[in-house]
Specification:
Layout lengths: L3 H5 L1 H5 L4 E5 L5 E4 L1 H7 L3 H4 L12 H11 L5 E8 L9 E9 L6 E7 H48 L3 H29 L5 E3 L1 H15 L5 E5 L7 E3 L1 H19 L26 E14 L2 E13 L27 H10 L4 E7 L2 E9 L2
Parallel strand pairs: 7-9
Antiparallel strand pairs: 1-2, 1-5, 3-4, 4-5, 6-8, 9-10, 10-12, 11-12
Helix pairs in contact: 6-7, 8-9, 9-10
Length: about 375
């Protein structure tokens, strides 16, 4: 392999979400991709003047593995290690290392996958598959429920017309009201799949300001709704109303927890606030934060630039029992909640090729929306 060959392969390596480095058998770095450069915090030029053995906290296993692979004793070897980061004193990065032979003599490929990233990717894959399964389930279930509901409601109306007793008529009214409630629940499940997207240029800060004004109108006292915006974030193509609804559902869920109730997975779909416009806690705080993320992978794709929108609250946190299932329909930690708020939010964000992540501990819950930027 010529000295020019590593540079020729640089563009292809830069498309990879994992950290990749091409090395000599003694560990000298010949080529490093942008993912490694970004995560380690060292320029590519500096990396390519160094030795991969110096990057690991305990390099002995990598040194032995490079020798085995370069000597054709094994084709591939895997192990876990700790990758050093800059500046000095930064927390080491836990990585899964894959050392492989290449078609070029005297060259070894070392791939490093961030263990947290691997776990997140698996979680995203499960969430994506579950969302698709839920979509089909909801559509089929809605069809099976709505037809009998119409018959039940019609029969109750006819029965009410024949009854002379007021007490018995009250029973038929209960049947009609409950049938209407179930019909509305089914419509709520189907809502995001019925309405087509209205695509236009979206300013995420206009979305945030709209949500902020709605929340403050509902809770004019006792709640601090703070802004932390990166105003350099560009506009992108999307449906502003869908995004407003998604952010509002998450924010509404947070305010219900801050208002003193159990944190659930609701939102406007759950019937609104229960506390008459005042939160119970004196230090209740909601933060809307926007940032840009570079070279990120989510939704099984790698994006050069993405929007990060954080909705953070200092409430009691999401109950551990439902933490892994909060985006599933009809899952709620609040009594009387329908559990549709986060399901709808997730659907609307996915329709923008994005994802929602949640990190929750008592005193701090952060919902992070990631959406690709142009």
């Amino acid at each position: 392999m010529t000295e020019a060959t590593p540079a020729a392969g640089l563009e292809a390596f830069d498309q990879l979400a994992t950290m990749v480095v091409l090395v000599a058998p003694d560990g000298r770095c010949l080529l490093a991709n942008s993912a490694l450069e970004n995560l380690v915090g060292v320029s590519r030029r500096t990396l390519q003047r160094g030795n991969v053995l110096d990057w690991l906290a305990e390099p002995a296993q990598l040194r032995d593995t490079l020798g085995l692979v370069a000597g054709n004793q094994v084709n591939t070897s895997r192990f876990d290690a700790h990758l050093k980061r800059m500046p000095a004193g930064s927390v080491d990065l836990q990585v899964h290392v894959i050392v492989s032979q290449t078609e070029w003599p005297g060259r070894v490929l070392v791939e490093m996958i961030e263990i947290e990233q691997q776990t997140r990717r698996e979680r995203e894959e499960r969430a994506h598959n579950l969302a698709q399964a839920n979509k089909e389930l909801v559509r089929n279930l809605a069809h099976e429920i709505k037809n009998p509901l119409g018959g039940i409601r019609g029969a109750a109306q006819l029965l009410a017309m024949e009854l002379g007793s007021r007490e018995l008529t009250e029973y038929t009214q209960i049947i009609i009201q409950e049938a209407d409630r179930l019909h509305a629940l089914v419509d709520g499940l189907l809502a995001p799949h019925r309405r087509p997207q209205v695509v236009a240029d979206v300013n995420i800060h206009e979305v945030c300001e709209r949500v902020r004004s709605l929340i403050l109108a509902e809770y004019p006292r006792g709640l601090d709704v703070a802004r932390d915006y990166d105003t350099s974030i560009p506009e992108f193509r999307g449906d502003a109303e869908q995004l407003i609804q998604a952010v509002l559902n998450i924010a509404h869920n947070a305010t219900q927890a801050l208002a003193g109730g159990s944190p659930g997975t609701g939102g406007p779909a759950d019937g609104g606030s229960q506390r008459g416009g005042r939160v119970a806690r004196g230090d209740a705080r909601l933060v809307l934060r926007t940032r840009t993320a570079r070279q990120v992978t989510f939704g099984r794709q790698r994006f050069r630039l993405a929007l990060e929108l954080h909705i953070e609250d200092n409430g009691p946190g999401v109950p551990e029992a439902i933490r892994e299932s909060i985006f599933q329909p009809l899952v709620s930690g609040r009594e009387g909640g329908s559990g549709l708020g986060l399901t709808l939010a997730q659907t609307f964000v996915q329709q923008h090729r994005g994802i929602i992540e949640c990190d929750s501990v008592p005193g701090k819950t952060v919902f992070k929306i990631l959406i690709p930027l142009p």
